[in-house]
Request: fold
Amino acid sequence: GVRVGVLALQGDVREHAEALRAVGAVPVPVRRASELASVDGLILPGGESTAIAHLLRVFELMEPLRAAIADGLPVLGTCAGMILLSDTIADPAVVRGREQESIGGLGVTVRRNAFGRQVDSFEQDLELAAWGASLPGPSSVRAVFIRAPRIEEVGEGVSVLATVDGHPVAVAQGHLVATSFHPESAGETALHSWLAAAAGERAAGRVA
Ligand code: GLN
Reply:
């Protein structure tokens, strides 16, 4: 099976690894640049984006990740992972005088915790539009939102795959897909299938 990394600094790493196994991929925990270099796709999991961004600096992964994304590495970012993948954070946290950083690559502006306190968490069925040959659609997915971010602006070349109350909650741009929600918490694997297929294509291109 194709090797797909899961950034394993903080967050729901185990659930994503299980979803990858379910679609026949080999999950690889990524904590260092050498591990990143060994995979053909990557998941940025949910968790706490400020903590993950801080650890990306500590583990010296920020620049290798930016380079890998610029080089076409297929990436799925979920929840905090979507925040990390976004070019602009509307309301970055300020930790010890420094604004929270994102990795970037995805041409959107995201707002953290945007669905409000009284509805910190909710679940709903969503219609997900197709993306490429390996994410056929529209497909119905059970989406789990936990202190979820929301996309406020979508740049050129970014496709909206699903919305809630008119706000994009799943977007795609070339080799990048991001969701406000946690597909892995509900056992959804459609997005993991897409990622495994995209990673398979990249692996084939590397050998050729
Ligand atoms: N609110 C979190 C953040 O800002 C994201 C929550 C999640 O990943 N479930 O990083």
Observations:
- The radius of gyration is 16 Å.
